[in-house]
Design a protein that fits this description.
Blueprint lengths: L3 E5 L9 H11 L4 E4 L9 H16 L4 E3 L9 H11 L3 E4 L4 H8 L4 H10 L3 E5 H5 L4 E2 L2 H6 L7 E2 L3 H6 L3 E4 L13 H4 L1 H9 L7 E5 L3 E6 L4 E6 L2 E6 L2 E6 L3 E3 H8 L11 E4 L2 E5 L16 H17 L3 H17 L9 H22 L4 H21 L3 H13 L2 E6 L2 E6 L3
Parallel strand pairs: 1-5, 2-3, 2-4, 4-5, 8-9, 13-16
Antiparallel strand pairs: 1-10, 6-7, 9-12, 10-11, 11-14, 12-13, 15-16, 17-18
Amino acid sequence: MAGLLVIMGSGETTPTMIKLHRSIFDRVGERPAVLLDTPYGFQSNADDISARAVAYFADSVGRQVQVASWRTVPPEGLARERTLAAIASAGWVFSGPGSPTYALRQWRQTPITSCLVNVLSRDGVVLLASAAAVTMGSHSVPVYEIYKAGFEPYWEPGLDLVSRVCGLPAVVIPHYDNAEGGTHDTRYCYLGEQRLTRLERELPDEAFILGVDEHTAVLLDLSAGTATVAGRGRMTIRRRGASVVYAAGSVVGFDELASAASGGSALVGDGPVLVTDGGPVSVGSIGQPSTVESTGPASLRAATDEQAARFDAARAAGDVDACVEAILALDQIRLDWAADTAQSDEADYARGVQRTMVVRLGELARSGAGDPRERLAPLVDALLAIRARARADRDFATSDEIRDRLLRAGIEVRDTPTGVEWSLLER
């Protein structure tokens, strides 16, 4: 088998992964590209998610993608055969966000898994991200049920696609380094360490966890027998609490992954060993560096915060042009991230920050961005010249009145041995 199976931890339709997508499409050539909409097929905004994904690949990546609809298992007939035919002729098949368990219910005991295997057998690309990536292993994390609905932790049987095409008994966990929980542990696709440790005990002896960080991809090259880590984060091979971590740029043979997972030399500490909540972590070896990497901030929130800091610095310096540039940059960032199919409040956050920036720019315009002394100097200097002539004529009443009126206007006049000085009083 000679295809490319890609596991993407998150960020599949964000600016951070554009370069990676383009590199993968270079391999595909002109063969058709298909988006499989199953994982989010139950959502009322499924059409919008598909439209945003198609727009992302067209506008940002430069590739036309066709939607192959399989939101529920279609009955025998033309619609079903059209979807299967689209997948059968594709050189690139993608599926991403939604619910892993929902996708599994629609894909099990259907031709979908075999269709994906056939794409790979024809040297095609199968790219599964986020929820769809969870389905690839022998066992799958029921994310919604555990994290949202409070089910007791359990494994859902997976499609076992990785084992079928790579010979690796992997359990795929994307969002491996997730930190959305803030004060509570949401690593490991929202499981956290406690739940993952509990679930690991229920896996077969040969099974291991293949964790992929957010905004990171693992490219399993079936012909070369290698796994390449690309993007911002890392790939983790974990079994029974012990982990081997491979940084972005690592190119690792399937045999090395199997050795690491089975407790080979990589796990017992031939390299530097770190200690984490999950037990010992060996730093995996790195082969030839990958040429595929992601760029830019890892999230819309991070990109927004960068521009907010830029705006704050410009506002403090009274630099109106730089303030406007930060606002315009954030507007472009919001546009760049508009195709992101992830379900979060980050778009609302970015909009709120931009509106705040506009309001604060208005306040700056009202109070004046430049040094007020520069604007007032011609007027004050003219009044002080009149006052000097009044003093020379011994018209001290006029001199004092000018000084007092300037003081009421917030301008303090001081007569010093070296001449008259004035300053603005803080209000």
